[in-house]
Amino acid sequence: MNVAQLRISRRSITVAAMLACVVSLAIGGHAALSMRALDAAKAVAGEQAIEAGKGVSRIALVIGNGNYPDANAPLAQPINDARALTQSLRRNGFDVDVVEDASKDDMTRALDRLKSKIKRDSVVMLFFGGYGVQVGRESYMIPVDAAIWKEADVRRDGLSIEAVLEVMKEQGARAKLVVIDASRRNPYERRFRTFSHGLAPINAPDNALILTSATPGKVADDGKGQYSVLMSELLNNLNAQTSETAAGAESVFNKTRIAISRASDGEQVPSVSSSLSEDVRLAAAENAGG
Fold it and tell me: What whole-number distance in Å separates Cα of residue 37 and Cα of residue 41?
């Protein structure tokens, strides 16, 4: 082998070695890219799983009490109200537990069920239609089997609205929504030595929104319609929402208050109390565009 051939041979070996290095680097780079792509895919999948796990639960307890033995006649509207609200809330993604003509035990068990469903960041709603009684600075929802002759009986047999709000708070509910249609003249008041008309102001914890059928200390007469005035207007505002007009719960409650006040020429003015720190939509995403 002469010198020229030796040089060519060495050059060939060098070129081959360089080509081998390039191929190796290419394979390694491809493998690295593949690993990065795989890691990225895993990260995306993980984030999607986390987001899915963050799906906010929407739960409601709806109570309609109409048949009170101590009343002169049954209340016709609370059960109709409870059924109509239940349908509307279920259409909007709420898990609703509805109870009709509830005894004290029924209401206590329903509250226990509600408590077990509440998760961190849940949106929770309570509706009560029936008789409510104010004792001191607190308002109580009255079950149909209550035996009330004095104010102490209200505390024993009734269910405090503020106590229910406290349960929601303790369980970590993100938003606490309460609708109380119970500002009626109740059949027990003449049995008390002293009594207060209507309901007491409800102390709202953080991130709560409360709608009552009349201002504190006032009573509202039942109309003759299928639903109470409060529920009729609330349903109108709930069911009118579309992807273009969806509003937050506070706006829905305030529209309801204004409509009732105008329709009654100021004779019935519902009360709205809010400590919400963020907007909460009542309409489901598919109904209200998110």
Answer: 6
Give CA angle at 252 (249, 254), nearest 5°. Answer: 110
Query: Model confidence over 32-91: pLDDT tens digits?
Result: 444 454 444 433 333 333 333 346 799 999 999 999 999 999 999 999 999 999 999 999
Helix (H, G, I), strand (E, B) or coil at 102: coil
Is there a contact between 246 and 184 (Cβ–Cβ < 8 Å)? no
pTM here is 0.78
**Following DSSP, what letter does each residue of 197-255 receive, concatenated?**
SS-PPP---TTEEEEESS-TT------SSSS-HHHHHHHHHHHT--TTT--BHHHHHHH
**CA dihedral defined by 184, 187, 190, 192, rounded to 10 degrees?**
-90
Residues 173-214: pLDDT tens digits?
999 999 999 999 888 877 776 655 789 889 878 999 999 999
Q: Can you say whether the dihedral through the CA atoms of 69, 84, 207, 274 is positive or negative?
A: negative
The end-to-end CA distance of the chain, in Å, is: 82
CA 219 to CA 197: how far, in whole Å? 6
Instruction: Assign 185 to helix, strand or coil.
Output: coil
**Inter-residue contact 134 to 200 (CB < 8 Å):** yes
Other residues' Cβ atoms within 10 Å of the Cβ of residue 55 = 9
What's residue 64's pLDDT? 98
pLDDT: which is higher, 198 or 285: 198
Locus of tokens 């005035």: 229
Q: In whole angstroms, what is the distance from residue 23 CA to residue 166 CA?
A: 68
Sheet (strand 271-274) strand order? 95-100, 58-64, 123-129, 175-181, 208-212, 271-274
Q: Cα separation of 232 and 208, whole Å? A: 22
